[in-house]
Amino acid sequence: MQTITPYLLYEDVASALDWLRDAFGFEEVLRFEAESGEVNHAEMRIGGDSLYLGDPGGDLRSPKQLGQRSSLVHVYVDDVDAHFERAKAAGAEIELEPTDQPYGDRRYDAYDLEGQLWSFATRGKEVPPEEWGAKVSR
Question: What would the pLDDT profile of 15-35 be if each residue is shown by its tens digit?
């Protein structure tokens, strides 16, 4: 079995755990605390997928430290409009309101409390990639 698990960096992992739970519906699975009490690694889950969180160290930088985003995490949810309302109520900075996309999904984008960019979508109708302008390698 092969999987990909995003590992996102946060200045305050403990606060990120609470915020991602409240705003985006993630479930905390585990957390590791340093002797100082700071959370330096954690795991969350949504549906059957995992997300790792850690604090930046060494040459690693969070978007908050960089002052710019460096990635986008895309998540499929059952009801993107309800998910959007939850995120907005929790204070997510909305980049794109729920919008029907040419490839068939309905999607919104939002920044979390430390500047990570998230994209949430509900799968819509199947639209062949050639119909929305994508080049397909086969």
Answer: 999 999 999 999 999 999 988
